[in-house]
Amino acid sequence: VDGQTHGNIYAGLSQALVEHIVHDQSGVVTNSVGLDYGSIRPSRLPLFDVARTETTTPNTPHGGKGAGDVAINGVPPAVVRAVCNAIGVKHIDTPLTPEKVWMAMQSK
Question: H or E element: which one contains 71?
Answer without folding.
Answer: helix 70-87
